[in-house]
Amino acid sequence: MQHSPKTIVHLIRQGKIGGGESHVLSLVSRLHSQFFRSVVISFTDGPMIEALNALGIKNYVVPTTKPFNPLVRRKVRQILKEENAVLVHAHGTRAASNVFRSAATLNIPMVYTVHGWSFHKDQSKQLFAARNLSERFLIGKSDHTICVSDANKAEGLSYFPMQSSSVIHNGVDFTRFNPKINSRNQIREECGIPKGSFCVAYIVRMTVQKDPLNMVRAAAIAAEKDANIHFLMAGDGPLLEEAKNLALELNVSHRISFPGFRTDVPELLSASDAYALSSLWEGLPIGIIEAMGMEKPCVVSNIAANAELIEDDKHGYLVPMQNADALAQSLLKLSLNPEQSVALGKAASNKARKMFDLGLMARRVEKVYKDLLGLPVSSDPVPNEPC
User: Which residues contact 199 (CB under 8 A, 6 or more apart)?
Assistant: First the structure.
């Protein structure tokens, strides 16, 4: 007998598109519509809302920039009731902290996906302790916790129990992130990238986490050694102007393009020859997987989540965190050895397509939902096209 699809309400902290938001967009586009209907609550407006509307996914904006905000509780609970939600899926700390009580009141199970923990070693002892305690609390309130990397789960387990938990790696749509895309000439002309240059893409939200200032310093060092290297630093964020000013100070502005926030990431990658990420912490960075899918060798900071994706000297290079010189030297290895660079990119793509396909991720998430809801688990594959 055919049953109507069950409503899953997803919650995400903001409408700006970052890693977690890209994950939500990808997931709701791939959940099997025969079984599940997706509704999204975002706690700020932004481009993600436009993308959800384009997909035909019902969504709400409940404005708050604070976790554990009692002022949004009534509105969130009202949406869950009106949409007849059978399960909530909170993506990140702010989302989980602002829905757990409403879900519990309505006796709705909650899945919590950790896109990187909110506590970090660079925080003050007091802030670290408070964030750690809040994560422990939210894990305890969740019916199942999903970590996006083995490193993520191992770190959590080192601080608190996670009795019902799993690792489901982020997935990427490789029909969209396809090396056959060729916007090289168009993007290079648009962004002021010299035609024959070796272009390094750095596509992030410019925040402390992504360490853009270290990226600019590495660009300056590399530019002194290779007159053919150029950098595409795309994205907005609180450190964008500081990064631009540092580029001016180091006399490297002419070697870096700053096009601002862009949604045409596959096209930007198609115009590039390598990808770099100098982050200080990560859950599992979707940007690296996207670059891998586009056959780009990656030079990334040697943190556990990045090392889960990139094997040194096989898919690119791992470099010490906050070390501009090491970052520059590894990028020079690529720019000065184009054949090796291409070989590393192809190996990266092969790994990404085997392990981080979007359909595979969606099917694994569906199994979590079905287990919690007592639904039969089908062997039918999750479709590769949006439902």
Answer: 188, 193, 229, 230, 231, 232, 271, 272, 273, 274
From residue 134, give the alpha-carbon distance in Å to each of 39, 94, 119, 284, 330.
26, 10, 9, 21, 38
Decide: residue 136, CB within 10 A, 0-12 exposed, 13-18 middle, 19+ buried.
Answer: middle
Per the document, the length of the chain is: 387
As beta bridge partners, residue 66 has none
How far is 176 from 265, CA to CA, in rounded Å?
10
Phi-psi region of 71 (alpha: psi -120 to 50; beta: other; left: phi over 0): alpha
- Rounded to an integer, what distance in angstroms lies between the CA atom of residue 229 and that of residue 321? 22
The pLDDT of residue 40 is above 70: yes
pTM comes to: 0.89
Token couple for 361: 């991720």
Place of tokens 């789960």: 153
Q: Choose among 199, 254, 268, 275: nearest CA to 231.
A: 199
CATH architecture assigned to 184-355: 3-Layer(aba) Sandwich (3.40)
CATH classification of 6-171+357-373 is 3.40.1180.10, yes or no? no
Average per-residue pLDDT in the chain?
94
